[in-house]
Amino acid sequence: MDKITVDSLAKINLGLNVIRKRDDGYHDLETIFIPLLLADKITFSKSNEFSFRTDSDLLNQLNDNLIIKAIRLLEDFTKRKFVLDIFVEKIIPIGGGLGGGSSNAATTLKAINKMFDLGLDYTQLSSLAIELGSDVPYFLNPVTSYAESRGELLYPLNIEIPYPILIINPRIKIDTAWAFKKIKPVPPVKNLRQIFQESLADFDKLKSYVKNDFEEVVFNEFPLLKQIKEELYKQGAEFSLMSGTGSTVYGIFFNLQKAYLAEEYFKQNYFTYLNNPFTKGSIT
Ligand code: C5P
Q1: pLDDT for 129 beyond 50
Q2: CA distances for 72 relative to 3, 184, 202, angstroms
Q3: From the CA of 53, how far away is ligand 1's center (Å)?
Q4: In the chain, pLDDT over 90 holds for what percent of residues?
Q5: What is the mean pLDDT of the chain?
Q6: Ligand 1 within 6 A of 26 CB?
Q7: Does the annotation count 11 as an active-site position?
């Protein structure tokens, strides 16, 4: 296989509880990852010299590009060289709590494993993935999942949210390390997996129990994000929450028409994406 083009999906967090600070400096958390149909496209072509190209100025400026880091890590692990031309069509907002960088890293590990017949299994890929970032293992198998520890202990839930989800991102870039530093961890009152499984049809219950612990600190620093959440409710969302450490805020709607109208409203000023489960082929 000389060339491969792959979709690199985004995610949202339905709930995010930061439970405790660990001795290694990271935090234990619990969350539910939901995959979106929103995706970057990455093309890998075997080549005579290494090159990385993208249509995103922001990605071009980053010196810690996770796609290149993933390739270097695989080279160290396999003691081989992967000389590629890589092109990234960047759609997912960067630093927006949608996991775009982590997804690109996991997609790269999988694509190279396939292209060069490396024969690495899920466990091997997963231990490389966690070296690249806490959210990277999830994107090796991006299905709706409950996650613990740093986010690498994953339990697929076999559930899909059967409603439109409207994603709003005001292009504010949030520094994950900063957000974790600001937070005071507290063990959650109720286990998130249990709440999710019991309350998927009861959005009032979801609203009272499902929180994102980062909202308080991030909303304090960026009040616009709180306003977006309030506006999502005004526009008819049944449930709204910030994803990850922000800056994306999403709303789940029962009514597709309302979701379309809300998207029209927000897209005048912000990046928007309407994840419509009724138009999808497969989200796995
Ligand atoms: O793992 P990742 O590179 O995404 O993490 C970025 C930063 O966020 C880490 O350096 C750490 O400070 C913080 N973090 C944390 N606990 C986690 C995930 C991230 O403290 N579970």
Answers
A1: yes
A2: 19, 35, 46
A3: 27
A4: 85
A5: 94
A6: yes
A7: yes
